[in-house]
Batch of 2 targets.
Target 1
Amino acid sequence: MENILVYGDSLTWGIIPDTRRRLPFEQRWPGILEAQLSAAGLRCRGMADAYRKVASDEGCSFFDAGSVTGSSVVDGVHLDADQHERLGKALVPEVARLLPT
């Protein structure tokens, strides 16, 4: 699996020279990179499987939130209210089985 680290300095932050304002995310280079990779269908693949393996190796439980909901179309990262509800309801039986009876 390939990883991309984007260091959070003033260039990724999108500072407009001689101001304290920022460029909108879609105009900053990380936003342009993300948009181009997303448009090309090159999103992260295999992350859930990688986390599942680490959890298994460490004897931890794992739940793939992506199995019940995607991310918001607004920013592609966070969850909308209906997605929070879907995830919360899906987690109830998973967490309940981990609790002592």
Note: DSSP finds four helices and no strands in the chain.
Target 2
Amino acid sequence: MASTTSVSASEFQSNFARYADAARSNPVMVTRPGGEALVVLTADTYARLRAAYRRVVTLDDIAADEASELFEALTQAGATPAARALDHLMDDPPVADHVSAKA
């Protein structure tokens, strides 16, 4: 990826047109006290990033060796705490006890 220009928020605000033009070729990182605040990039780049994020791939879409490699990576990665917190959703629902009353 191309190098990123880093600029303070006040510098960015004072020279918006300059940095907007610069963002057409390289991302521009806007900083505030305490760290990075924004990244300015082209609309095309943003659309491409959004399209690639969480893209669904079926096993029919990839070669067998890629599928095997993907499966191995997923197996090795393990579940995140957020994913483990959802494990209870996979449990079987409790079976209701039915008591039949005879008259």
Note: The chain has five helices and three strands.
